[in-house]
Amino acid sequence: MKRIKCIICNFMYHSECVRFTGDTTSARMQWKCPSCVATERKGGDNSNTPVRVEKTSKTVRTVAADSDISESERDVPVAPTYNDPNLIVSRLEHFLDAKLQSIKCEIIEELKTTIFTELKNEITSLSSQFSQLQTSYSQLQLENDHLKSDVCALLERISVSEDQVSELRAQFNRQQQQARMNNLEIVGLPQTSSESPVDLVLSIAEYAGVELNRGDVDFAHRVQPQKVIAGRPKPIVVKLADRLSKDKILSGLKNKKGICTRDIGIGGTEKKFFVNEHLTPENKQLLKSTKNLAKEKAYKFVWVRNCNIFLRKNEESPALHIRFEKDLAKIK
Asked: The domain at 182-278 falls in which architecture?
């Protein structure tokens, strides 16, 4: 079934229902539905005007209840709005589309307004928070700069303090070592219940070829070592009246290539022991580090003279005086 479209309301009608017989393009482009024609003639929309229906034996004619309608207007054919289901459905579809389109536009506008308002509020809130963060960051950066300055000052003070402490420790160590200049330390000599340390010292001096009297020995006794090793006897610390006697004993034992228990009249299994200068704990540790370095770097000679530690690469190289641990770091 063919359809025709009103050029005013854009509604679609069945050609037969509105009695459209023209089939040319120009006729279709100029066609107006009966409702729009009636509206144009009256100068307004009478779609809400109540109507009455007059029945005859052959036809049904719709007449407007308004008494002002002219005879020519009554003769205009009216679309059978209530009798054609297809037309009713078409009008309902158009009405619903228009309503839905209107509702859609309203919803979109409302959503846009709501979203824009919320976005504006959120942006304002974020801007405020960002400003607060910037202020906090500036304060933290300022505090950080102050802390950095304080840390640098503290590090400098700590460095100075460490240097002062190192110097004080070095001075204390020198004083302690100076007080031990006349001392000998006997290590590895077996201990007996009836021994006399002074007599042992006199026997050692005699073996070294040094004439020594009891009055030349200020004291001689065994001391507890810092690190106790099971089976190792306590060392004997000896303080002589003068440094010359100490040096003579060390020199004599060096010429004898060492000493053992049999050399001083101690029976039983022969055991070698050592007579050294009495070093402070710091100098003992330094001597140990020096020996380890000498082994690692292939240095041939490490020795102690007058409580000073020396190192030499070989017979032709100069002797190096080792005073502190940092001196070892310079050795290649």
From this structure: 2-Layer Sandwich (3.30)
3-state SS, one letter per residue, for the chain: CCEEECCCCCCEEECCCCCCCCCCHHHHHCCCCHHHHHHHHHCCCCCCCCEEEEECCCCEEEEECCCCCCHHHHCCCCCCCCCCHHHHHHHHHHHHHHHHHHHHHHHHHHHHHHHHHHHHHHHHHHHHHHHHHHHHHHHHHHHHHHHHHHHHHHHHHHHHHHHHHHHHHHHHHHHHHHHCCCEEEEECCCCCCCCCHHHHHHHHHHHCCCCCCHHHEEEEEECCCCCCCCCCCCCEEEEECCHHHHHHHHHHHHHCCCEEHHHHCCCCCCCEEEEEECCCHHHHHHHHHHHHHHHHHCCCEEEEECCEEEEECCCCCCCEEECCHHHHHCCC
Q: Which residue has the higher pLDDT, 89 or 258?
A: 258
Give mean pLDDT, residues 172-183: 92
CB 13 within 8 A of CB 29: no
Q: Which residue ranges make up each domain of the chain?
A: 3-83, 84-179, 182-278, 279-332
Best CA proximity match to 204, nearest among 217, 218, 223: 217
Mean pLDDT for all residues in the chain: 83
Rounded to two decimals, the pTM is 0.53
Confidence bin at 19 (pLDDT 50/70/90): confident
CA distance 196 to 193: 9
Separation of first and last alpha carbons in the chain: 112
